[in-house]
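Subject: for your reference before the review

Hello V.,

The reviewers asked for a structural picture of the protein, and I figured it would be easier to keep everything in one thread rather than splitting it across files. Below is the amino acid sequence we used in the manuscript, unchanged from the supplementary table.
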Amino acid sequence: MEGKFDYLIVGSGLYGATFAHLAKKAGKKTLVIERRAEPGGNVRCENIEGINVHAYGAHIFHTSNKKVWDFVNSFATFNRYTNSPLANYRGKLYNLPFNMNTFYQMWGVTTPAQALTKIEEQKSAAKIGEPGNLEEQAIALVGSDIYKTLVKEYTEKQWGRDCRDLPPFIIKRLPVRFTFDNNYFNDLYQGIPIGGYNKIIAGLLEGVETRCGVDFFSDRKHWEESAEKIVFTGKIDEFFEYQFGKLAYRAVRFENEILDVQNYQGNAVVNYTSHDQPYTRVIEHKHFEPENPAYFKAKTVISKEYSMEWTDGVEPFYPVIDEKNTVLYKKYAELAGQTMNIIFGGRLAEYKYYDMDDVMEKAMNDFDTIEGRNV
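And here is what came back from the structure prediction:
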């Protein structure tokens, strides 16, 4: 078909935008369509009172992959922000991730040996062998006191399920260290793009034809005929018309408030780990970019995050990786593998939680593989 695109990319989040950038750079005729009014997916920022507000939740870029780090730094300068969240349990603050500061705040211990002894005592008292669920895994890692104070209620708010009904691997992502180090990530590189993530998206999509407010499914036949290959970053079950049933997600609702204070909570991220508060955390966005002149103004923007079950018409955030949904996704993945000239990539299309660097690396590798560069 004359005028046909080489690639139609459905979705302009980090996977789609990275793929589009590489395709454009390789001389491919590329079109990006985006259902939302603005590009960028969940890393999109909104400027409120001069502050770059992370519209879909806090995003802190971190990686040990120098190739990816150099790549994102070609679009924006990153500051030296270090993610050091706090946990608020009924008015008492604890450092995260779990480290010697946390153990001191919880038990008054001052050495790693004392902390390990305490954890082993509580693990033995709970009779934990091979952890079979999240509760057992958490107690095995940090003991029952920390589990009850900082994990149990927070996790149940976040996932809407009892911790004994959640798989152990979820808690394994959380760092546990026996040093006085509040840096959440172990990666070599970490920071926030100065000026917000929109600068990165704009750089990735520069020169790429991009149409926003366009729903692939509203005229599916037209869009499927518009390109030689389609890169699909939406929900994989929706692409296949839910023929095996719907995959489950958790969603997040945000309540933004503009406050007439220069500094509300003294930290970008504070988790609320008890059921006393219905929200899971409060983000104060200006702390991500202290170099921003708006940082010193007597205005701040906070976002309260409320976790909820996903329903139609609500934005899906986190895949619910349990046995039922894993089996269901595999059925869709098998169909995807049999579908010619369709590339499925990203959080929704692969039903997988991705860190930002990982999803960009995946887009790079997928593009190289499709274009025969890895052969």
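For the response letter, the relevant points are probably these. The chain has eleven helices and 16 strands. The mean pLDDT is 96.

Happy to draft the paragraph if you're swamped.

O.
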